[in-house]
Amino acid sequence: MSAAMRETLPPPAAPASPFYTAEHEAFRDTLRRFVSREIAPYVDEWDEAGEFPRELYRKASSIGLLQLGYAEEFGGVPTDPFYRIIVSEELAKAGSGGVNASLMSHSIGAPPIAALGPDWMKRKVLPEILAGEKISALAITEPSGGSDVANLKTTARREGDHYVVNGQKMFITSGFRADYYTVAVRTGGPGASGVSLLLIERDRPGFSRTKLRKMGWWASDTAQLFFDNVKVPVENLIGEENRGFIGIMLNFNQERIGLAAGAHGFARVCLDEAIAYARERHTFGKPLIANQVIRHKIVDMAMKVNAVKANLELLAWRVHQGERPVAEICMLKNLATTTLEYVANEAMQIFGGAGYLRGAKVERIYRETKVMTIGGGSLEIMKDLAARQMGL
Amino acid sequence: MKVLVAVKRVIDYNVKIRVKADKTGVETANVKMSMNPFDEIAVEEAIRMKEKGKATEVIAFSAGPAQCQETIRTALAMGADRGVHVLSDAELQPLAVAKLMKAVVDKEQPGLVIVGKQAIDDDSNQTGQMLAALLGWSQGTFANKLEIGEGVAVKREVDGGLENVMLKLPAVITTDLRLNEPRYASLPNIMKAKKKPIEQLTSEALGVDVAPRLKTLKVEEPPTRKAGIKVKTVAELVEKLKNEAGVI
Asked: Secondary structure of B49-98 in the HEC alphabet?
């Protein structure tokens, strides 16, 4: 093409990326080192053990990992959403969704406290969580349903200055070890307008939990929770009584962007691992990557991962501008998690037998793809919600 | 006591180095750059001195293009108090850097200068020693352990093991790998580092001649290693070491 035919303007001299500054990159550097030294060497061991040392929460806090996006007065570091994308990408490099899910469970448990909680709660509970001293979990899903929040069955009956909580919660991340549970309960009549959020401390009499054995996320302590006449002071109410539904829904948006970012991170790891393996592995006298079938596979994988990244960053930017594009967040979650399924599957295919062995990153990631298309709102729920938001 | 530390911007240690097509050097365009790991150890040691009350201020120095400010920011995010950047797009050889540092030392009057024993790009291992000579200060190179008292006790890594030397202050120290394990720059500190001052100077303003004294003729990839062979017996191994390799 001749110069005369060119009509596009030269790129602005401004930053190399519209989303990431030098500070973002500095934090990425710190995280990369942290993950490679403090997490990656141990994930196999922790996965087999079914948990990781509690000390990791404090270590994570020492680099600022747990404090992202919280106000300074509560021990946080105010940030934009791109820091969270960086966290998802870099944590994914250790290849263990379970470690990430429990280590970062406060990213779904604590936002309602920060957004709606009473002052005493923000001053006491948030700093402990952000310092990695205490673990926060979110408890919405019940044995009878997850995304159907409006019909949840756990009740909190008001008795004087207490609520008395009865019911069960299911599939709760960090559910076995958490100190603070952000629990959705029914304080009013049926439907969405009877739902409240309560902070319940782990040592309340009548509150017990059992650990659940899972397909993946072994290092994460997922649990079922049981509330048997648990007395909770009324000041533990997060937000107004019977107004919990909207808080839960807003929290879901954030959780879904987080899940999409995580899925993108893991997909990228699968892609990188597959490329590295295809270069190294020789069959029939040449490296695997010299075969067109493998090369094309890798291009398809990269193409899909790039599409997720572009969508994720643009949506994160829009949310940061104050938009709340619910339908697009639902679609992003589906795009990211189904891309992860695709890419993990192709990576396993490239690895062949070596990918079927425990200890390979792609083996674990492949096994952990399902939780991504189910947790935080399943594929089908996401489509349904998106369809309704689109007015279809 | 002020402590001056030098931080060099080098190609990140994880990057696979590629030689430029014209063999004049290595490819640095679109390559991730980081702080020289030995300099990180220098920064860490200085910050620890400040935390123990042995130092009052830690100043991070770098010389080179505008992007060196990022490297200084990393030092500031680790805990250094302020930065001094000598802006230069010219090739800076160890003698030039030592002279620039001397000019900054004359201005800042630190009681101690800590630099990495070498940078992982050119592996010169010269700047610290040259700076000590230019200043006429004591030097403790390849430091494995430092103890600040009246002077500074340095445990040095030498070929035969460890050597203890006692230096008078002011002094120049160069760090070895085992001196400490550098901390992570935490997110709160990365944010705080944005507000810390970096003074920008030029070699002209400092009156330093930075013209290269060494000329690079050609840069080449090291020869690729040939595949080894397996020997069947110890006798065969000894025979090959004697007659083929000529090492015994």
From this structure: HHHCCCCCEEEEEEEECCCHHHHHHHHHHHCCCEEEEEECCCCCCHHHHH
pLDDT digit string (tens) for B69-120? 999 999 999 999 999 999 999 999 999 999 999 999 999 999 999 999 999 9
Q: Do A79 and B185 touch (CB under 8 A)?
A: no
Contact A65 B187 (CB under 8 A): yes
Same domain, A68 and A30: yes
Q: How many folded domains does chain A comprise?
A: 3
Residue A207's beta-bridge partner residues? Answer: A227
Please tell me which residue of chain A has the smallest CA distance to B194.
A23
Peptide bond into B170 cis (omega under 30): yes
CA B91 → CA A135, A368, B6, B94, B96, distances in Å?
52, 50, 17, 10, 9
Residue A23 is nearest to which of B184, B186, B194, comparing CB atoms? B194
Structural domain for A288, as ranges:
246-389
Q: Which residue among the candidates A90, A255, A273, A313 is catalytic per the annotation?
A: A255
Task: Catalogue all structural domains in chain B, each as residue range(s) with its CATH number.
Answer: 2-223 (3.40.50.620)
In a domain, A98, yes or no: yes
* Confidence grade of residue A342 (pLDDT, cut at 50, 70, 90): very high
Bigger pLDDT: B47 or A6?
Answer: B47
Whether A166 and A112 share a structural domain = no
Identify whether the C-beta of residue B61 lies closer than 8 Å to the C-beta of residue B33.
no
Q: How far is B184 from chain A (nearest CA, A)?
A: 6
Cβ contacts of B77 on chain A, cutoff 8 Å: 26
Q: Per-residue pLDDT tens for A346-365?
A: 999 999 999 999 989 999 99
Are A164 and A282 contained in the same domain? no
Residue A255 annotated in active site: yes
Q: Among B36, B104, B47, B32, which Cα is nearest to B77's?
A: B47
Q: Is B34 an interface residue toward A (CB < 8 Å)?
A: yes
Looking at the structure, tell me whether residues A117 and A195 fall in a common domain.
Answer: no
Q: To the nearest whole number, what is the mean pLDDT of chain A?
A: 93
Note the ipTM here: 0.81
The pLDDT, as a whole number, for residue A1 is 46
**Cβ of residue B245 closer than 8 Å to a chain A Cβ:** no
Domain end: A72, A102, A130, which one? A130
Of all residues in chain B, the one with the smallest CA distance to A72 is B188
State whether A29 and B188 contact (CB < 8 Å).
no
* Pick from B73, B186, B194: CB nearest A30: B186
Query: Model confidence over A122-135: pLDDT tens digits?
Result: 999 999 999 999 99
